[in-house]
What does this fold into?
Amino acid sequence: MELSEADRAIRRFINEQPLYAPFVIRPEGVGGNPPDRPRMPASILRHCQRCDSGSAWVLAFPTNEDRKQNNRFTDEIASYICGHCGKETLTLWFVHEAHEHNERKRPIAWAFTKIGQNPSPQRLMDRDLAEALGGEIAKLYRKGLTSIAHGFGIGAQAYFRRVLEESCNVILEMFAQEAKAAGDLDAETRIRDAMTNRQMDERLKEAARALPSSLRPGNANPLKFLYDHYSRGIHRMEESDCLDAAQRLDWAMTYIFKGWRQQMQEARAFREVISEDPYAEE
It folds into this structure.
């Protein structure tokens, strides 16, 4: 059975949401009636580090019996156990409150916030990204991921800004090489010129302007994305805004070093095959 958006949202909350960061869920009502507050699902999909499998995890607490007995913790704690090995567990402590009401003052959206988790929340760094950045920068990156997992937005954003400062020319060199491989020597020159700018934000801004359309999958400019989130003033941002910006920088960096680079490598291989095709028309 296909999950509703609210069902998918509560599972994202369980598996991905950092500590102390409110997560708003807006379920759909049935028959014109206000929606019920989302409950923890009976099962979730999650990777188990103990048995190294992606399997269904089963809700161990609260059970239906716990709810019938009006156990006061049924709306504050949820515990899951791996359905494959039956040994690894995940326990969440959370609070929730009405976030939005209708004209009759009935709640139609709820904000869920994790206040504890065991095992401690963690975000793993992509291996390709860690290898590309190197030891010291990768250490900073992992500290940024740890800050994200614990909901420390300002700290996370500070770490990712530092990572971007230290790795900027590594990133721009990748784009310059791909521009050269695509035969766009003008773009390569402009990107390399941008690399000499001492101001970090201007370096990214100039390189983003120089990026040719051939290096913008789906017409999306990865360098402009980095510039937009780096240039946001951290001292003028709320904790939640910093957390959002840090998460977006993590996504963008991982995409550039994994998804984007793989796309460019495949495009380069395709160009080479086409150029060597003996049956291609002149």
Summary: The first helix runs from residue 5 to 16. Strands lie at 23-25, 43-48, 53-61, 77-82, 89-101, 107-118.
